[in-house]
Each structure stands twice: as C-alpha cells, then as structure tokens.
Specification:
266 residues, alpha/beta, D-Maltodextrin-Binding Protein, domain 2, 6-stranded mixed sheet, 40% helix
C-alpha cells in the first residue's frame, strides 16, 4: 500500500516537472532571416532610370534580394542570353527579341507578359535652330547627321527604320545616319550636338533637359512599342524572378513607369 502511494506521488511529481519544463522550454524562436538572393535582370537600356527607382522600392520590401541589372540594347542582351550569360529575368524593348528566345525555349512561356509601352520621337539639341517640325524634314539638306540605334540590334533603331520606310524617307536619311549601340547613346549624341537630330523613345526625351522633342511618329507608322518580360528557362533564381515580375506589374512600379513616360500594357 505504502509502495503504491509512493509510486503515485513520484508519478505526479514527474508529470509536474515535465509540464514545467515544457512551459519553460517552449519559447518561440525568432524567425530565421531570409537567405540572400542574387537576382540578375537583363533589361533594355531605355528602362534604366525607371528600373533604378523601382530597385530602391523593392529593396525596402525584400532587403535580402540584391538585383543586378544588365542594361543594353535588347538585341545584344538576346545574344548574351543565347550564349549562356547569367540572367533570371529579361525585359525587351520589342517583341522580336523575346519571340526569338521563346522559339529556342530559352524563356518560360507561361511567365511572358507585356509590361509597358512607349512612343517614338524626333529630338534635337535644346539650342537647335533647325526648322524641324515633322519626320519628312529629316530629309532636308540642312540636316547633316541623324542618329538612330543600330537597326540590327537596337529596337528603337528598328522602329525608326520602320517609320522612315513607311514615310518613304529611308533612302534619304540612311546616307546621313549615325548609328548608335543603344538608344541612350543616341540621346547623348543629340545632347552634345554631335548630330542635328535623333530618333529615340519618348521616355528618353523626357529625362533630358538638353534636348527638345520635335514630334512623335505618325500613328500607324510603326508596330506598337511594347516591352515584353519573361523569366528565363535557365534562371538560377526562378522564384525570386517571378516575385519581382509580380512587383513590376503592381501599383508601386506602375507609378514609377508612368512617371518616366511609359504606359502600362493592358
């Protein structure tokens, strides 16, 4: 009998100790810090300023994600991707480059979206006295040099060529054309007065106080200037790329894109 009581006491004591230990030892551990992520984004050079601002907004939300932007002409970026350059996300300034990557299964087709749209304008140096009011004026003998992007690799150059051909101006303008490696180089040539005029995106013209816009390309003279975006098939950070792509389509990024003159694609 005494033995039984002793066993009951010992059992109760053991249970109490176990409960106390459980209460004292079950303190919640702080959540583990998110692992650092290196995200590589290849994007059209014309997006430089907007993406720089968006990067700061995203860093405040995802401090563990370090985004490295590779900014260049879309055709050059396409070739880099085809040659295996590291990239998780690609934003092209035209559908052509994205179409060709898709044909080679180098992008995740289901992730592809049209992100933003742009316009095409003629710009001249701020102090220019040239009497330019329309695209046809580029053929004037008084206009000696006109800069456009390389028509093989730069979408802005391809759009410019399309407009000039549509208006039957290409033969006259190509003789005085100064080709540039990307659209921002065209802007620089005009800003410095090295050329009389240049054809750039409306967003490029908007960021410079050293140039003035003459006119936009006539409606219907070129394909819509659409910027498609997609996660690459060889992405090392596919989830992070998807998350950033979602952010690019969100309200905060939209406000930045519109600030720089882009319009969001429907």
């Amino acid at each position: 009998m005494k033995l039984t009581k002793l066993m009951l006491v010992l059992t109760a004591l053991f249970v109490s100790v176990a409960l106390l230990a459980g209460c004292g030892g079950s303190k919640e551990q702080p959540p583990a810090a998110a692992q650092p992520v290196e995200l590589n984004v290849s994007a059209a050079a014309s997006m430089k300023d907007a993406l720089g601002e968006i990067q700061k907004l995203y860093a405040a939300k995802k401090p563990n994600v370090n985004i490295t932007f590779n900014l260049a002409a879309s055709g050059a970026l396409q070739k880099q991707i085809e040659q295996g350059a590291p990239a998780d996300l690609f934003i092209s300034a035209a559908a052509k480059q994205m179409d060709e990557l898709e044909a080679k299964n180098l992008i995740k087709k289901e992730s592809r979206k049209n992100l933003v749209e742009n316009s095409l304008v003629i710009i001249v140096p701020k102090d220019s006295k040239a009497n330019l009011t329309k695209y046809e004026d580029l053929a004037q003998t008084s206009v000696k040099k006109v800069s456009i992007g390389e028509t093989e690799t730069v979408p802005a150059g391809q759009y410019a060529q399309e407009v000039l051909k549509k208006l039957n101006l290409w033969d006259a303008v190509k003789e005085k054309a100064v080709m540039a490696k990307d659209v921002r180089t065209v802007l620089t040539y005009v800003e410095t007065g090295n050329v009389d005029a240049g054809i750039v995106y409306g967003t490029d013209a908007a960021i410079s106080d050293k140039v003035k816009t003459v006119t936009a390309a006539p409606i219907g003279s070129h394909k819509p200037i659409v910027y498609p975006v997609a996660v690459l098939s060889g992405a090392k950070q596919p989830q992070a790329a998807e998350e950033f792509l979602t952010f690019l389509n969100g309200p905060e990024a939209k406000a930045v894109f519109e600030k720089y003159g882009f319009t969001m694609s429907k």
